Amino acid sequence: MTQVLAIDQGTTSSRAIVFDSDLRPVATSQKEFTQYYPASGWVEHDAEEIWDSVVETCKGALDEGGPVAAIGITNQRETVVLWDRETGEAVHNAIVWQDRRTAEMCAKLKGDGHEAMVQEKTGLLLDPYFSGTKLAWLLDNVDGVRERAEAGKLAFGTVDSFLIWRLTSGERHVTDATNAARTLLFNIREGRWDDDILAMLNIPAEILPEVLDCGADFGETTLFGDAIPILGVAGDQQAATVGQACFEPGMLKSTYGTGCFALLNTGDTLVTSENRLLGTIAYQFDGKPTYALEGSIFIAGAVVQWLRDGLKIIESAGDSAPLAEKADTSQTLYMVPAFTGLGAPYWDPDARGAIFGLTRNSGPAEFARAALESVGFQTRDLLEAMAADYPGDTGTVRVDGGMTASDWTMQFLSDILGAPVDRPEVLETTALGAAWIAGNRAGIYPDQDAFAARWAVDRTFEPQMDEDTRAARYAGWKDAIARTLSDHGK
Question: The pTM is what?
Answer without folding.
Answer: 0.86
